[in-house]
């Protein structure tokens, strides 16, 4: 079975959630950008844009449907060939921030369309999650990249909203005070040498690989036949690191999981308060508890190394 063309990740906090969607299409980045920019084509898959936002601060209204109330307003924050950022407010909700990026696919073929929506209304995760997946499906159809067996838009939106709801239900949240400065903790989290010094250090065959260009890491533990793949989603040195989390073992491979790590100065000089939030579409409490225990043990190893 081929992988689903859309990956989804829930970052942020319960009060300020951030939705990240990555959609893979076979069209080249230039074709995707043309479908985003051309008014006639954009109207077929997204909606009609009132206003001509070209510079930071320019206002717009995007009519998403036939009803007058089905419209979003915003201001352009950033526009370059690979990155669009705007404020966003739909039907009078509090203003949020939307980022859209288009880049070559991870294997060099096609494109990857990234949507990151930082919400101001925490109860809107399911609605926006399902809505953006439907929009990305409509864009794929406009590009001629829709799978022949794809479900209709309503079914896609409903199924996606249910999965996003599940992702909000059982986050793993852990807080730990570490005996080192934020910069030193950051190095332990983001360098090959740093990760190798503490991650699963109770096994002597663990291998750590780092791809700095992609912002990716692979940690392999042959003894337990497990591989963990991480790829950056948000990097704000030395305060925040968010990444995808793909755990692979004999029983299968995790999907739609992410981690969001926050670092801040501790109450004592030279200490760091680390907050970990791990989310995924876990239907059972046991999966959440297994991850909680794993994080407690692994962070204990990090504290030992930093304190040594």
UniProtKB/TrEMBL annotation:
Q: In this entry, which stretches build a coiled coil?
A: none
Q: Quote the CDD domains the UniProt record gives.
A: SRPBCC_CalC_Aha1-like
Which intervals hold domain Activator of Hsp90 ATPase homologue 1/2-like C-terminal?
27-143, 180-307
**Per its UniProt record, what Gene3D superfamilies does this chain match?**
3.30.530.20
Into which family does the record put it?
A: Belongs to the AHA1 family.
- For this entry, the protein name equals SRPBCC domain-containing protein
């Amino acid at each position: 079975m081929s992988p689903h063309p859309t990956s989804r990740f829930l970052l942020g906090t319960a009060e300020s959630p951030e939705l990240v969607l990555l959609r893979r299409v076979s069209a080249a980045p230039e074709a995707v950008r043309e479908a985003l920019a051309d008014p006639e084509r954009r109207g077929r898959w997204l909606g009609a844009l009132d206003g001509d936002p070209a510079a930071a601060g320019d206002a717009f209204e995007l009519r998403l449907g036939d009803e007058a109330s089905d419209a979003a307003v915003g201001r352009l924050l950033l526009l370059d060939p690979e990155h669009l950022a705007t404020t966003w407010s739909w039907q009078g909700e509090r203003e949020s921030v939307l980022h859209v990026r288009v880049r070559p696919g991870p294997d060099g073929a096609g494109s990857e369309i990234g949507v990151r929506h930082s919400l101001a209304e925490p109860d809107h995760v399911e609605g926006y999650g399902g809505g953006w997946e439907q929009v990305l499906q409509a864009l794929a159809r406009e590009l001629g990249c829709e799978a022949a067996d794809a479900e209709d838009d309503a079914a896609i939106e409903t199924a996606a909203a249910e999965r996003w709801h599940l992702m909000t239900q059982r986050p793993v949240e852990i807080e730990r005070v570490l005996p080192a400065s934020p910069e030193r903790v950051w190095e332990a989290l983001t360098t090959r040498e740093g990760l190798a010094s503490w991650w699963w250090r109770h096994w002597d065959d663990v291998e750590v690989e780092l791809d700095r260009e992609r912002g990716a890491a692979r940690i392999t533990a042959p003894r337990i036949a497990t591989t963990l793949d991480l790829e950056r989603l948000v990097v704000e040195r030395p305060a925040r690191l968010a990444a995808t989390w793909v755990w692979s073992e004999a029983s299968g491979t995790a999907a739609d999981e992410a981690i969001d790590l926050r670092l801040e100065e501790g109450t004592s000089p030279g200490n760091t308060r680390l907050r970990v939030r791990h989310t995924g579409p876990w239907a059972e409490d046991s999966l959440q508890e297994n991850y909680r225990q794993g994080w407690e043990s692994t962070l204990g190893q990090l504290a030992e190394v930093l304190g040594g």
